[in-house]
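User: Can you predict the 3D structure for this chain?
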Amino acid sequence: MSETEPTPAAAPAPAAPRRFPGIGCFSAVGALIVLMLFVAAGFWAVTRYIDRTVDPDPVTIASASLTGLREQNKLTAFAARYVAVVTSKQSRLGLTAQKTIIMPGSVEYDVDLSKLKQGDVAWDADTKTLSVHLPPIELDGPHVELNAIREYGEGGILMSLTDAEAKLDAANKKAAQAELVRQARQPTPMRLAREATRRAIEHSFAMPLKAAGIDAHVRATFPGERSAAERQRWDVSKPISEVLRNRSGAPE
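Assistant: Here is the predicted structure, written as structure tokens:
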């Protein structure tokens, strides 16, 4: 009989900005650069469209912003680094062997902008509010740092006589990757990822409106974030797709 039991560490080290343990310059600087390039590219594309439009209004500008964002496909506004510590044990022939792996890895938090539809963007003329309903955050990773992996073992006799070491290694790597994902899905990094993404999207829509001299508030939300009152307001407000369709005289 043999038994392999991967056991994650009791206190993993997640990572995020603002003193969130474990995050490195990768997320704080690299994600910021990506974010700045994303906003700048979107702003450039939309302002070009506005320059060619006579007397632009919020609906026209919002539609152009939406088109520009969808063409960029993916937004990565947040990234974090985590460390998984896992130990596996195996017993055979009265002997016991165990190995511990320390596996660092990074995770990117993405939003698939190609999933944005015109029906997800609504303009409320009374409150001058542009509402953008975003698709959920998706994880890209973990991207394991292979050169930084460390392993420690005990029970060399059993490992030298059997395939215990290979099985322990396989169990550890599988459990460590699952542990990295578990850390990445914790409430704090998910909240930080949503906040970073929300800011990027709101700026992408607000900057062209401001450039056109339109005083408007942009409100970006994720699934499950809108209250009952906000959902009612969303239902009352007209999606930009309906406004544009009415202007063109196309049938409902």
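Strands lie at 7-8, 74-92, 95-112, 121-124, 129-133, 138-144, 150-154, 217-221, 238-239. The two ends are 69 Å apart (CA to CA).
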